[in-house]
Amino acid sequence: MRKHIKLLLLLFIIMVSLTNIYSQKKSTKKMPLPDKNIREVVVLETSYGNIVIDLFEQIAPKHVENFKNLVKTNFYDSTYFHRVIPGFVIQGGDPNTKDDNRENDGFGKPEQPTVPAEFSHLSHKRGIVSMARKGNDINSATSQFFICVADVPQLDGEYSIFGKVIEGMDVVDKIVSAPRDGKDNPKEHIYILKAYTKEMDIPNPQENVKPTNPECNTNEIAVLETSLGVIKFGFYDKIAPKHTEQIKKLISEKFYDGCTFHRVIPNFMIQGGDPYSKDEDRSNDGMGNSHLPNIPAEFSDLHHLRGTVAAARANDPNSANCQFFINVNDNFFLDNQYTVFGNVIEGMDVVDKIVNVPRDERDNPLEKVVIIKAYLQKSK
Questions:
Q1: Are residues 221 and 345 in contact, defined by beta-carbon separation less than 8 angstroms?
Q2: Does 156 share its domain with 281?
Q3: pLDDT value of position 27
Q4: pLDDT for 364
Q5: What is the pLDDT of residues 314-339, one digit of tens each?
Q6: Which parts of the chain fold into alpha helices (H)?
Q7: What is the pLDDT of residues 35-83, one digit of tens each?
Q8: Quick check: 45 and 192 in contact, CB under 8 A?
Q9: pLDDT value, residue 156
């Protein structure tokens, strides 16, 4: 009897062991592979070699979409780099370069659709790909692009960065060193033979991570009852204490009641808070101050993201007083130029209504958008 029990116990132990081994093998087979980070890049096959560009879709989504669409419709095929400047950039993408007339290279076609500016916190470093534009119109980018062959920070806040070269900078260096004429056009055409997209297993570039701001203090918020709706914003009282104190003081004194938003620019911002805007004389709107002294600048790491509230000023960085503006777009080029002191927590739909109203040549709304009442509200 004991022998039978021992035998059964031994068989049970063997079965359990075999089951564990089988389970381990089975689970090993089913272990998932590490996730691949598949990204869609653009390849430019040029007469000097290939250039591979990774795109910053989080930073400049409209420019990336436009560039990809042009690539996928073979727009860039058979165009050439028409402007090469050592120590600066190489530029291409003009449909005019498909003909033999060099005189119109760089002018593009008037019927080409434009892309609004998407300036960011990124800097024009070597290898960066950015969009060219027409003259001083920041919203005039079409198809032409340039690749930086050196760090050119003077272009920051002027042109929209949308990618960077991840392979082929040696090709870019060859192109920029090619003999050129008096207009910086290579004497021998350097063609984009073919442009196409392909998938690559590469990490998301650090440049493609959109910056964020910390949450603002909402223990006491500002409420602006306007003629187009209500806007509420909290304060960065720890980061910009002097601006917060002055704006709150003016609100408590009912200073802003009756002021208008006297400057509204689509894709940029709305500005208000000038006491001169309370009368019917529009000629001096934007020139007024309060009875309080100017506020010294409190520049910080806060970014001018959509919805942030910042202090307007004159040329002197320490000249902010009572006027403020609300960003309707990410305006990174304003960072460390103006003091961010708040963030809209409710009513961005109202801000969007205001920025899109008809306006005159000075960007003053044709029909006044009035701050009927401004007050502070404590959280419950």
A1: yes
A2: no
A3: 45
A4: 98
A5: 999 999 999 999 999 999 889 999 99
A6: 2-30, 61-72, 169-176, 241-252, 348-355
A7: 568 899 999 999 999 999 999 999 999 999 999 999 999 999 999 999 9
A8: yes
A9: 93
Q: What is the pLDDT of residue 260?
A: 98
Q: Are residues 114 and 182 in the same domain?
A: yes
Whether 21 maps to a domain, the answer reads: no
159 shares its domain with 76: yes
* pLDDT of 11: 55
CA dihedral 251, 257, 260, 265 (to 10 degrees): 30
Tokens of 138: 């920041």
CATH number at residue 279: 2.40.100.10
Residue 367 lies in a domain: yes
Residue ending a domain, choose from 151, 183, 208: 208
User: What is the number of domains present in the chain?
Assistant: 2
Q: Cβ distance 212 to 61 under 8 Å? A: no
Residue 33 above 50 pLDDT? no
161 torsion bin: left (phi>0), alpha (psi -120 to 50), beta (else): beta
Contact (CB, 8 A) for 161 and 120: yes
Rounded to an integer, what distance in angstroms lies between the CA atom of residue 79 and that of residue 111? Answer: 18
Q: Are residues 224 and 358 in the same domain?
A: yes
Q: What is the DSSP string of 208-237?
A: GSPP--PPPEEEEEEEEEETTEEEEEEE-T
| CA 203 to each of CA 50, 53, 141, 206: distance values in angstroms, whole numbers, following the listed order | 20, 13, 28, 9
Would residue 1 count as lying in a domain?
no
Please indicate, yes or no, whether residues 342 and 203 belong to a single structural domain of this protein: no
Based on the domain organization, do 154 and 222 belong to the same domain? no
Mean pLDDT of all residues in the chain? 91
Length of the chain as a residue count: 380
Q: Which amino acid is at 212?
A: T
Q: What is the pLDDT of residues 350-365, one digit of tens each?
A: 999 999 999 999 999 9
Q: Of the candidates 154, 176, 208, which is a domain's last residue?
A: 208
Domain that holds residue 240: 217-378
